[in-house]
Amino acid sequence: MDHASPLGGPTGPNALEVLRTSSMSRVVQGEIEKIILSGVYGPGEKLNEKALADRLGVSRGPVREAFQALNARGLVEMIPNRGVFVQQITRHDAVAIYDVRAGLFGTACRLLAERITADQMANLKVLLAQMDAVGARRDLEAYFPLNLAFHTAIVGGVGNRYLADAYSALVSRLQLFRARGLVHGGGFESSNIEHRAIVAALDARAPLGAFEAGYAHVQSGKHRVMSSGDGPEAQI
Amino acid sequence: MDHASPLGGPTGPNALEVLRTSSMSRVVQGEIEKIILSGVYGPGEKLNEKALADRLGVSRGPVREAFQALNARGLVEMIPNRGVFVQQITRHDAVAIYDVRAGLFGTACRLLAERITADQMANLKVLLAQMDAVGARRDLEAYFPLNLAFHTAIVGGVGNRYLADAYSALVSRLQLFRARGLVHGGGFESSNIEHRAIVAALDARAPLGAFEAGYAHVQSGKHRVMSSGDGPEAQI
DNA sequence: ACGATAAATATTGTCAACGATCTACAATTT
DNA sequence: AAATTGTAGATCGTTGACAATATTTATCGT
Predict the structure, then answer these.
(1) Do B96 and A68 touch (CB under 8 A)?
(2) What is the pLDDT of residues B176-219, one digit of tens each?
(3) Domains of chain B
(4) Is B96's CB within 8 Å of A64's CB?
(5) Taking the CB of the first residue and of the last residue of chain B, which one, N or C, has fewer CB atoms within 10 A?
(6) Nucleotide D12 C1' to residue A55 CA (A)
(7) Residue of chain A whose alpha carbon sits nearest to that of B94
(8) Contact B151/B105 with Cβ under 8 angstroms?
């Protein structure tokens, strides 16, 4: 099975720009991350240095450097003299990650409530309406990107790089916890109700209410995911 | 000036154990991190690969791998074909980091309020009393470790690895923002009052109140630091 | 046939070297 | 004199090679 296209193929938009701004190891890191998050390797599976290097058309050096970065981001586990393995996220871990994510998302809502612009507010309401419409049709394929855009608009809208980075690091780790599981809908209604509560609090410029709404929303998402079997799937 | 002792010297407890469990690049990473956080290199200063490698008695490979990890942790900035530089934390950045830290610390307090044990509660009260006593004497040297222990007891007491890691990553970054500045006291009283509010909320097992108390405490700390000149110093 | 031991293979950790890129300085031109 | 161009040195990015460690396979003994 093709895990990755050997570099030089249609990897990026234009290889010229990529290779000038980014170093090889950064490209390699992105490729390996895509491979890991795509789920083809499975949690706990070993990542062979030489095999990856050959597949990506580079030597082991850049691969090892990429491993260090991925390890710091919590996507792989490194055991000295043994090798690098895809990080295993247990059910217990996922709960812990969701708790932190809830706190960060709530914080994002709180901070955004203190500084949200009219344009941002309007954008969120548009997304909300679209999600309502799509949710009524139970169209999961269309709902997913809208939901992602909604969350991104909130977390990114704060304009706090450190908040956004920490949040996306948690989301990445959480992606490791859907061991090849299918995406499974359900909970459109409650999710949309929570979204409305968040927007309402933001519209009222109520930091405390916004925090609570955001925190509760992620916690609800945690319960939705956790209550649906061992190898979980949805993230609404 | 001696930036670091060449490995093999009295760096760690016993080099044998360290070298068996940890790889060289991990040791190197720790050494470089200590060097950076010690502040001898100054924000924005360049870290020369060969110079660091020579000083640590290794080749450039492990140093480059350590750089990747430190970059992912936000302690250095890597510019392709230019080099690695100590991350610069501007005043604006520090404010952003404090905001995230406030949210995380508040979340820690909230989660801890839901599960704190009697032993943990007692420990916090002991620390609180000690800080009161030391604060009354205005003994900053003694206050600092107690304050650190108090915060660590809360964040670590939750038992959430991801929360603790994210929090300490922010604290590390924040350390970059005391550009060789002296530690400057002041605010003992307000800080202690806030500590008491946190403990009271935890004792009452009140998640919401605990969050607010923790969040407000870090925000107050932010204002204490930010209001004291450009190159800030204290972190109480 | 099963388990323990030993050789063989594979993989990791580290290093030194090579080409590519950048930086600093001097010579030249306007 | 200021700006620009050209060159020399330093530094970075990558690679291939070697030693150390782990894993697999083969062999031996009970």
Answers:
(1) no
(2) 987 544 445 667 888 999 999 999 999 999 999 999 999 999 99
(3) 15-86 (1.10.10.10), 91-226 (1.20.120.530)
(4) no
(5) N
(6) 24
(7) A162
(8) yes
